[in-house]
Structures are given as structure tokens and as C-alpha cells.
Write a structure and sequence with these properties.
mainly alpha
């Protein structure tokens, strides 16, 4: 019998599930709704314009790529998600043009590597890196002008940071992001390994350098400054993170350690972005190592 047509080779991730890639993308977009709504409530119509600009740019570039390649890749929601995530990582005073450029850059990066499932780095994080390189002063101006610092104090200040009233990025409401993450856990879209590993590793490293109280403050500072968004919604990207549970945990811990070390010299959003990207670079090796141990 000729079995040539029995198997079809496609891009990763190769995980058995009834959900399509589009289902996963729209689940993540739905989970981001609480953070997006809080951003509009906190920062006004400008936050909405940033999110619309980033998403629109990403969708337009994805449509153009689809026209060139003959593939309908807009409907799966991956471009809109990349643009939305990119926008939520921006400082509240970023311009609409910056959001548009970042959203476009995110999808261009993905297209260069062959589209969804073939990129080894998270497109939204790459888009933020492009903006940091092109608009360095504008990306950090909000932190300086607002006096945003890791010296949070206690009690009310920490609570304000967790709620999002004292956030350094558009999508900085930790409570709203955790609500979205809880939905993703319930739906099986993500697992607890990466977010927990990343946050716990960041906390432990921060405590080693500054003691328990300072370590806790710096961790809240990190979470409200983009760390929660990165840990729950970006580091868990199934394309760029390991498939095995042990690999996910190692990946999350590594991202947290790198973020904590970088965070001592850079801002919270930059440390989260670079920490996750660095872990993604070694993700294939983590997955290979943990998979080999699983099947021995």
C-alpha cells in the first residue's frame, strides 16, 4: 500500500489538541481583555489608540505577506495578538506611530522566518526591541518623568502597583493579567510551569541581592513594569518555549534569573523582554535535553 499521503509535515508546535492555532490565539486575546480595559480606564483613549495602532499595523503586514505567499494567515488571529501584546508593553506616553511601527516590525520578523510556528523568538518582544533601539529615549522617558522606582514603600503602594494604578507599561495591571492567566490555565492554553518558575526565580535572585523586603519590592516593581505580561502571555508562547513540563519549568526559571540580573541595570520592561528572549534562544536545547531524559 502507498502511504505517501498518510502523514503531513507542518511547522511546530506539534502538540495533540482539538484546538486549532486560531482557537489558541483568540483565547489569549480574550484573556488580555481585562488588562486592555483597565489600560483604557487608567490611561484613557490614548491607550486604546496604541492598542488599535499596533494591532492594525500587524494585521496589515500579515495581509500583505499573505497576498505575496498565497496563504490566508490573517484569520488565525496571530497577527492581531502580536500587535496587541506589543502595544501593552509600551510606556503610557508612547506615540501612536511607535505602536504602529512596533506592530509592523513584529510581523515582519515572523514572516522572515517563514510565518507562524517557525519563529524562534516571540514577535511582540522583537518588536519592542526594535522600538527600544529606534526610540530609546522615548521608551524610557515615562519612568524618569513619573519618578517610577523600585523603592515602593509598603502596603498601599504595593497594592496600587498590583492593581495597576502605578504601572510603567500600558498593560501593567498585575491583577488583570493574573485574571487572564487564570482563564488560560483553566482552558488548558498554558500551564503553570513557566509563569511560576519565572516569577519565583526573579524573587529569589532579588532577595539574594537585596534581602527579603527589598526583593519583594523589586519583584512587585518588575511585575507591574511588564514582568507579569511577559511571564503569563509571552514566555508561554508554545512556538518559542519547550513542550515538556520539566523543560517549561527550566525555561521559566532561566528567564526569571536573567531578568533579575538585567533588571539591576535596566528598567523592568527591558529586563523582562531581554530575559524571555535570552531563554528563547536556548529553548531548543532545553527541550532536547528534557525530552531525552523523559524517554530514557
Amino acid at each position: 500500500m502507498n502511504n505517501m499521503n498518510v502523514y503531513r509535515v507542518s511547522s511546530g508546535p506539534h502538540v495533540r489538541s482539538r484546538n486549532t492555532a486560531g482557537d489558541v490565539m483568540y483565547d489569549v486575546i480574550l484573556a488580555l481583555v481585562p488588562a486592555a480595559l483597565f489600560a483604557v480606564w487608567k490611561f484613557g483613549a490614548h491607550a486604546l489608540m496604541l492598542m488599535l495602532a499596533g494591532s492594525l499595523a500587524a494585521v496589515l503586514v500579515e495581509y500583505a505577506v499573505g497576498c505575496l505567499t498565497g496563504r490566508d494567515t490573517v484569520r488565525d488571529g496571530s497577527a492581531a495578538l502580536s500587535g496587541l501584546l506589543l502595544s501593552l508593553t509600551l510606556p503610557p506616553d508612547a506615540t501612536v506611530l511607535m505602536a504602529f511601527i512596533g506592530g509592523a516590525a513584529a510581523v515582519v520578523f515572523k514572516a522572515v522566518f517563514g510565518g507562524l510556528g517557525k519563529n524562534r523568538l516571540n514577535p511582540a518582544l522583537v518588536g519592542r526591541c526594535v522600538l527600544s533601539a529606534a526610540f530609546g529615549a522615548a521608551m524610557t522617558a515615562f519612568l524618569k518623568q513619573s519618578g517610577w522606582t523600585a523603592e515602593l514603600g509598603a502596603g498601599a503602594e504595593i497594592l496600587r502597583s498590583l492593581i495597576g494604578s502605578r504601572s510603567a507599561v500600558v498593560g501593567g495591571s498585575v491583577i488583570a493579567l493574573v485574571l487572564g492567566g487564570a482563564y488560560l490555565l483553566w482552558s488548558g492554553t498554558i500551564s503553570w510551569h513557566i509563569p511560576s518558575g519565572m516569577v519565583c526565580a526573579y524573587l529569589i535572585v532579588s532577595m539574594l541581592f537585596g534581602g527579603p523586603a527589598a526583593g519583594m519590592q523589586q519583584t512587585v516593581f518588575f511585575l507591574a513594569g511588564g514582568g507579569a505580561l511577559a511571564a503569563i502571555f509571552m514566555a508561554t508562547d508554545p512556538v518559542t518555549s519547550p513542550v515538556t513540563d520539566s523543560g517549561k519549568l527550566i525555561f521559566g526559571v532561566l528567564a526569571g534569573i536573567i531578568s533579575a540580573l538585567i533588571g539591576r541595570a535596566a528598567g523592568p520592561a527591558e529586563s523582562a523582554c531581554l530575559g524571555v528572549l535570552a531563554a528563547e534562544l536556548v529553548s531548543p536545547f532545553i527541550e532536547r535535553f528534557t525530552a531525552e531524559r523523559m524517554y530514557r
